[in-house]
Design a protein that fits this description.
Blueprint: H1 8-20, H2 23-29, H3 34-44, H4 49-74
Helix pairs in contact: 1-2, 1-3, 1-4, 2-3
Length: 100
């Protein structure tokens, strides 16, 4: 898989720049298209860099839980253990606002 040019934290920092200045100018400065800025805005919305870091941490934690559950099922156990899976969005698909 291709490595991204920008980390999620860098994308959010560029988005905060685009909030203060026109998106076209910010896009040229960082050598990305204006549409890329709008796609990032759709993906990250009003998240701050700290919230993006926390989101990545939660996603990593969830993937570990899913791997653990799969390994348990492959072991051939007949009992069922359910792990609570954290969701990072509400039922409308909007990201939760994490408290600082």
């Amino acid at each position: 898989m291709r490595k991204a040019r920008f980390t999620d934290e860098e994308m959010v920092a560029i988005l905060r720049e685009a909030d203060r200045e026109p998106a076209g100018i910010v896009a040229k400065r960082h050598k990305v298209s204006e549409q890329t800025i709008y796609n990032w805005r759709k993906k990250f919305g009003a998240l701050s860099t700290d919230e993006v870091r926390r989101l990545k941490q939660l996603e990593a934690e969830n993937s570990k839980r899913c791997v653990g559950l799969t390994a348990f099922q492959l072991a051939g156990s007949t009992s069922c253990i359910s792990f609570p899976i954290r969701r990072d969005t509400d039922h409308f698909g909007r990201p939760f606002q994490f408290a600082a």
